[in-house]
Write a structure and sequence with these properties.
The relative contact order is 0.18. The protein is globular, with a radius of gyration of 22 Å. The chain has a single domain, classed as MFS general substrate transporter like domains (Growth Hormone, Chain: A). It contains 15 helices and no strands. By secondary structure, the protein is an all-alpha fold. The two termini are 35 Å apart. It is found in: Membrane. This is UNC93-like protein MFSD11. Belongs to the unc-93 family. It comes from Mesorhabditis spiculigera. Its main location: membrane.
Length: 476
């Protein structure tokens, strides 16, 4: 019989499935919707780079929101923080039923704060329902369920574009009538996600010590200076770079690559399917006993792509699958590390992780419109190499004596002979004096789904001829 904790993780995944279907599907069609609105005669005024401005607003408030996310989640509780964030996301999506520029930008700011709440609360709830033994399994399970929506989005967009005729001939835009129907469906899915969050069950045991807002905020700031967190800052930020690339720039390139012929939007639907397949396979992999044979460093080596080859349909599908598979491996390894390492301060640890991730995404979208695709590939490779080196250094520092929860350094946390011993064992650690930070789990959370916004094209490169206003969309 399924235990309560496993049921809770599945329930959490289903709630995210519904909410992220609405939000991520919106992200994939916003390019066509914004272009359609700008070309219509209904009096709506929207800048051609509105998607990019929205992305900047979202990631700005998302980054700042992580400073107060931990105390807010501790005050509200994971369930109510998740529910509140889901309401904010759904209102943002519903705004496209009657698009208004002021509301669009204002709701973008709210979504940034909602994202900080959402992913911090997700990490807390995952931690509450996980142990060091089940951390990888639960993280993989959550990813497999949560991001299975990407496969459904691909199918949904394929039939939508096929029926609408988008991508065939010269018209690559969704009509106003079809956009209305799409956003009715997406808003309904967001509403279903809210209801699913509201019915989340509490954990079997929740140990919570009352702390005031100021203390939690100060503890979060101190955790930023923790040696492990500083060492992992770039690996955390890398997940933001990587997810913003494939959710924003990659989809925009597919939609604007002339060598694919006139089927760009339909090809985008296939690319979304390949991304979903990569995420799902990686999530399922970490649910199986095979994951036990993978160390953390082996998992994060999987992130390769045919970046600089001439574009064709099969290469795009393979690239989408490899990007998402590699990114999911990175995130699951980080999730399990946080769950095992920061149980006593999960909201704080998760907020720190999401801060660096949001910073990576913010930086990506700051320079994205100004450089070509080849420069993007070089920068991403450099980021990946540095992040990999730092992740391996952090992993190596766990070796030797000492357990995760410190206390003098005898014995490894779970590895034979202390192979995966504690980072701070014996005199030191975040909490000082002779011990580790506080041991145990912590963190958990979402896959770089971060915030809307658009890549405003420009720079030629892969999409050819300087192009495409309005751009793709990065998921917070």
């Amino acid at each position: 019989m399924m235990d309560r904790a496993t049921f809770n993780v599945i329930h959490l995944g289903l709630a995210f499935f519904c909410l992220m279907f609405a939000y991520q599907c919106h992200g994939h069609i916003v390019l066509s919707v914004i272009s359609s609105v700008r070309n219509s005669t209904n009096g709506v005024s929207l800048d051609k780079n509105a998607g990019f401005y929205s992305s900047s607003i979202i990631f700005g408030t998302y980054t700042l929101g992580n400073f107060i996310a931990a105390p807010c989640v501790d005050f509200l509780g994971a369930k109510w923080a998740l529910s509140l964030a889901a309401v904010i996301y759904t209102i943002f999506v519903a705004g496209f039923l009657h698009l208004n520029e002021i509301f669009y930008y204002a709701s973008s700011g709210c979504v940034g704060f909602g994202a900080a709440l959402l992913w911090t609360a997700q990490g807390v709830y995952l931690t509450q329902n996980s142990t060091p033994k089940t951390s990888k399994r639960n993280s993989g399970m959550l990813f497999a369920i949560l991001d299975a929506n990407v496969i459904l989005i691909g199918v949904f967009l394929y039939f939508t574009f096929s029926i609408e005729g988008v991508g065939h001939g010269s018209d690559n835009h969704i009509s106003k009538k079809s956009a209305q129907m799409l956003y009715i469906v997406l808003t309904s899915m967001g509403g279903l996600g809210i209801l699913t969050f509201l019915f989340l069950r509490p954990c079997d045991v929740v140990k919570k010590q009352e702390e005031n807002f100021g203390k939690i905020f100060c503890d979060t700031l101190r955790l930023f200076l923790d040696r492990e967190m500083l060492l992992l800052a770039l690996p955390f930020a890398w997940t933001g770079f990587q997810s913003s690339y494939y959710s924003g720039l990659f989809s925009t390139c597919v939609a604007n690559t002339s060598k694919l012929g006139s089927n760009n939007e339909v090809m985008l639907a296939y690319a979304v399917l390949s991304v979903g397949a990569g995420i799902f396979v990686a999530g399922v992999l970490f649910m199986t006993p095979l994951s036990k044979s993978l160390s953390r460093t082996q998992g994060i080596f999987i992130d390769a792509d045919g970046f600089l080859m001439s574009p064709n349909a099969w290469l795009i599908l393979a690239s989408g699958a490899l990007l998402s598979f590699g990114g999911t491996c990175w995130n699951i390894q980080i999730f399990s590390f946080l769950v095992e390492r920061f149980a006593a301060s999960s909201s704080k640890a998760w907020a720190v992780f999401k801060f660096y991730q949001a910073m990576g995404s913010s930086l990506f979208f700051f320079y994205a419109p100004h450089i070509g695709i080849q420069a993007h590939m070089i920068l991403l490779f450099v980021y990946l190499f540095l992040a990999l080196c730092l992740f391996i250094c952090q992993y190596a520092q766990q070796g030797g004596g000492g357990g995760y929860s410190g206390g003098g350094g005898g014995g490894g946390y779970a590895g034979a002979g202390g192979a995966v011993g504690g980072y701070s064992g014996g005199g030191g650690g975040y909490s000082g004096g002779g011990g580790g930070y506080s041991g145990g789990g912590g963190g958990g959370g979402g896959y770089a789904q971060g915030g809307g916004g658009g890549y405003s094209g420009g720079g030629g490169g892969y999409s050819g001829g300087g192009g495409g206003g309005g751009g793709g969309y990065a998921q917070v």
